[in-house]
Design brief:
This protein is an alpha+beta fold. Helices cover 17% and strands 26% of the residues. It contains seven helices and 16 strands. Strands 1-2-13-12-10 form a five-stranded mixed sheet, sandwiched between helices. Strands 14-15-16 form a three-stranded antiparallel sheet. Strand 14 and strand 15 form a beta hairpin. The longest helix has 13 residues. The chain is globular. It starts with 8 loop residues before the first helix and ends with a strand.
């Protein structure tokens, strides 16, 4: 029997600032009173839910999505392995990315400028990022400090017409995408055959412009189970008829190619202070996520004023 897990510190912190509502991965519509949508690891998302997000963005809703080619903290039983074992799950927003001209690499970024450890403990895919990896002129990134990106991915592709990208977090030029089977190796095996791409790979980016629907044919037909013997299937419900093809105004979404950075294991540490358990940030991971949401939730005219300093104080007393 699995033990219940504690809610992530990120969720507890967001509830201090925002009115937080949970949506399932098969949601059919995003309510109009939701202003900012935070998506974390949408591994089982339905096509109908992607359409709901598509229309949400076209209506002017703000979106921040954390996706991952290799979510290390989401270990699932490996059905291909006869000896058991686990495999990390991946997640993406396939239909939306295709419509926006975004592609997330299925490989993990290894970076010899920002690795963790040294010698036999060298781990180039556990990125310890500093200001050199951030967009220095972006208010969200200006005071994050450091970030830990465990087994993160990167974005590529040519954006759809009318959209432009601003890279928020990137690798160094001494980096390359590696297969997931190599990503967890440390020491000398992790660098064998290492050939850097010579360019900075985008790990997180903001896409801005007038979005067009990633569903040009309108609302997708929901998947339905096959009819049982002697049972007649009813016809699917007709489309709502409110399909938006193009956004009325410009909007922006933020995409991050890593989920593990938000987990407690990567973002915080628990300390015992006079008999009380106190959660302290390890880095600026949660400050980054909170700053993004605060900026998007604020008045668009005040966005440039809503940065968040890197935390040096305890967040939560358990």
């Amino acid at each position: 029997k699995k033990q219940p897990t504690e809610p992530w510190v990120l969720g507890q912190e967001l509830k201090r600032t925002f009115d937080v509502r949970k949506l399932e991965m098969d949601v059919k519509k995003i309510d109009d009173d939701i202003k900012v949508l935070l998506i974390i690891h949408p591994k089982n998302i339905t096509e109908e839910a992607e359409y709901a997000i598509d229309q949400f963005v076209l209506r002017g809703g703000k979106l921040v999505a954390f996706v991952d080619p290799y979510a290390y903290f989401d270990q699932q039983p490996d059905m291909q392995n006869p000896f058991g074992g686990n495999q990390a799950g991946g997640s993406s927003l396939f239909n939306l990315f295709k419509g926006w001209g975004v592609e997330m690499d299925t490989k993990v970024i290894a970076d010899m400028t920002f690795p963790s450890g040294s010698g036999p403990r060298l781990l180039p895919s556990l990125l310890m990022l500093t200001n050199d990896a951030f967009a220095k002129d972006d208010v969200v990134m200006s005071q994050v400090g450091t970030m830990l990106i465990p087994f993160g991915g990167s974005f590529k592709g040519k954006l759809a017409e009318g959209l432009k990208q601003e890279v928020l977090i990137h690798s160094s030029k001494n980096a390359m995408p590696v297969d997931t089977i190599i990503a967890t190796l440390s020491g000398e095996p992790s660098t064998r055959g290492f050939q850097p791409t010579g360019k900075e790979e985008p790990i997180a980016m903001r896409i801005t412009g007038k979005f067009k629907s990633a569903f040009p044919n309108g609302e997708p037909t929901p998947q339905r189970p096959a009819a049982k013997k002697g049972e007649e299937l009813k016809p699917p419900p007709p489309p709502s008829g409110k399909h938006m093809r193009v956004a009325a105004t410009e909007n922006s979404v933020v995409l991050v190619a890593d989920v593990d950075m938000l987990t407690d294991g990567a973002a915080v540490e628990v300390q015992d202070v006079f008999g009380q358990k106190v959660v302290v940030p390890r880095n600026g991971n949660l400050a980054f996520a909170q700053s993004l949401l605060e900026q998007l939730a604020g008045d668009s005219n005040l966005m440039k004023l809503r940065s968040r300093a890197a935390f040096s104080k305890p967040l939560t007393v358990l």
